[in-house]
């Protein structure tokens, strides 16, 4: 309601203008050499910037609105996801990063579907993974838009249409100025802002609850004893759910094109780079835990919120001075932008490289493909605008979780098995990818495993991998020439 509006818009306008100008300047500074498609799709970036970009893209609005919202609702059982997050990011890096960077570099692949299409010499796999991921990413972008609407209508009583049109224009500008490089560098800035805000909100909320976890737990158990249990009796955070959850995070991360493209863009394949990348990622990942705790404190401070997703804006509104609130609002906007610009970039790179260049117009020049990519960004944003105007999902974080796992399963089996086992065949990769997505839909909508999303995602992934291996054993092996090309860098790597 209007009583929640910011009292003085001056601070907010100043903070927003500064944010906008810095982002545009940085984008322009790094945009050299991105007019062709290879620069647009995959500019080379250093490991620390990439790690921040990975973090900002991966966590986006969900860790500032959705995740604390679920923490507010579920209490301690949900904290497992925060505790286990960083560990599985590390696993992702160890298992995929170096091989993916080496092999995709040897093939000159610009996108994940491009890599899979070349690895299996399959146009079908290239087109299917491209379209499958695009559909799930559009859902993810819609969930971010929902976050932007929740935030700005709560803080400023702003009109939904104004919010999403402004959001869209900014995303198009950022992506089109310098392609992947400007996305990665602006994500880096946004990631730094997100870290600062996590710390500020946590301190303000912890102070408000009296600097004591014991008091917090006493008050939580008075509200509902289930909030202080380590696990739920049933549901998502039962013991089996918590065991499955980190593997689910792994499924949604390890082969997901918007994450993996950050590994493909690494400046070099030396161990040092990957060490820096990993350490940066784990450090910023730990800071996310502070936002989860803030959601928990929010339950004690504001036990009767109408919308759980508004817990962080509510804390900011009530506990921070005007200028602090302005910075938080801009930071929340930045966290959504980090996800949206990465998704839009990823979709436009995939559609322009994998559909336009590799399938429809094979003789297109580098500049033509880059031009197509820029047109596609407009089309994607238009589709998202239409969806958002007519459809708003309920729980932000859950939509993100489903779309994240869905897009991960499109590429999981062909990539994971194909990076480690040369005997993986084209038929194995295709059936594995289709099995992953179809079984996920079947298990989830069919109410299998008591509808536990974590177990459903993991079961679908395991099935996809088994099918990939089984079908590969019974079908014609890949042409050795294709595999040798992929291993072109292996001698030096």
Describe this structure as you would to a colleague:
The chain is mainly α and 493 residues long. It is 77% helix and 0% strand. The protein has 19 helices and no strands. The longest helix is centred in the middle third of the chain and has 49 residues, at 160-208. The radius of gyration is 22 Å and the shape is globular. It starts with 8 loop residues before the first helix and ends in a 7-residue tail after the last helix. Residues 489-493 have low confidence and may be disordered.
Topology:
Layout: H1 9-30, H2 37-41, H3 47-59, H4 66-74, H5 79-107, H6 112-119, H7 123-156, H8 160-208, H9 213-223, H10 239-254, H11 257-264, H12 271-301, H13 311-319, H14 322-360, H15 366-390, H16 396-420, H17 426-445, H18 453-474, H19 480-486
Short description:
The chain is an all-alpha fold and 493 residues long. 77% of the residues lie in helices and 0% in strands. It has helices at residues 9-30, 37-41, 47-59, 66-74, 79-107, 112-119, 123-156, 160-208, 213-223, 239-254, 257-264, 271-301, 311-319, 322-360, 366-390, 396-420, 426-445, 453-474, 480-486.
């Amino acid at each position: 309601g209007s009583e929640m509006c910011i009292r003085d818009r001056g601070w907010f306008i100043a903070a927003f203008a500064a944010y906008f100008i810095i982002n545009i300047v940085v984008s322009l500074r790094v945009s050299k050499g991105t007019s062709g498609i290879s620069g647009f799709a995959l500019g080379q970036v250093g490991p620390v910037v990439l790690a921040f970009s990975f973090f900002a893209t991966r966590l986006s609005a969900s860790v500032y609105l959705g995740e604390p919202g679920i923490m507010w609702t579920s209490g301690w059982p949900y904290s497992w996801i925060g505790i286990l997050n960083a560990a599985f990011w590390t696993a992702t890096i160890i298992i995929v990063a170096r091989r993916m960077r080496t092999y995709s570099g040897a093939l000159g692949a610009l996108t994940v579907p491009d890599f899979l299409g070349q690895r299996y010499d399959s146009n079908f796999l290239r087109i299917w993974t491209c379209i499958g991921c695009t559909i799930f990413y559009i859902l993810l972008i819609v969930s971010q838009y929902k976050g932007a609407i929740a935030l700005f209508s709560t803080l400023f009583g702003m009109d939904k249409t104004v919010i999403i049109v402004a959001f869209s224009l900014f995303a198009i500008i950022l992506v089109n100025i310098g392609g992947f490089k400007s996305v990665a560098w602006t994500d880096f800035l946004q990631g730094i802002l997100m870290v600062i805000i996590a710390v500020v909100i946590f301190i303000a909320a912890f102070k408000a609850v009296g600097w004591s976890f014991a008091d917090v737990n006493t008050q939580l158990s008075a509200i509902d004893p289930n909030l202080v249990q380590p696990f739920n009796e049933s549901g998502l955070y039962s013991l089996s759910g918590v065991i499955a959850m980190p593997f689910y995070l792994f499924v949604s991360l390890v082969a997901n094109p918007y994450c993996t493209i950050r590994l493909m863009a690494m400046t070099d394949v030396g161990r040092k780079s990957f060490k820096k990348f990993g350490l940066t990622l784990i450090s910023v990942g730990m800071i996310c835990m502070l936002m989860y705790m803030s959601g928990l404190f929010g339950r004690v401070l504001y036990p009767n919120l109408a919308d759980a997703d508004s817990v962080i804006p509510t804390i900011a509104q009530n506990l921070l001075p005007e200028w602090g609130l302005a910075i938080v609002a801009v930071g929340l906007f930045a966290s959504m932008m980090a996800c949206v610009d990465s998704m839009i970039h990823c979709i436009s790179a995939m559609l322009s490289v994998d559909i336009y260049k590799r399938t429809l117009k094979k003789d297109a020049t580098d500049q033509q493909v880059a031009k197509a990519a820029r047109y596609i960004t407009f089309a994607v944003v238009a589709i998202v605008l239409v969806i958002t105007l007519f459809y708003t999902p309920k729980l932000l974080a859950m939509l993100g979780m489903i779309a994240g796992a869905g897009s991960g399963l499109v590429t999981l089996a062909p990539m994971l098995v194909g990076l480690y086992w040369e005997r993986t065949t084209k038929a194995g990769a295709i059936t594995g990818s289709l099995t992953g997505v179809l079984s996920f839909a079947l298990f989830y909508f069919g109410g299998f495993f008591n509808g536990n999303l974590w177990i459903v995602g993991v079961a679908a992934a395991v099935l996809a991998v088994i099918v990939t291996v089984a079908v590969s054993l019974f079908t014609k092996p890949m042409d050795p020439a294709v595999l040798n090309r992929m291993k072109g860098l292996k001698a030096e790597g």
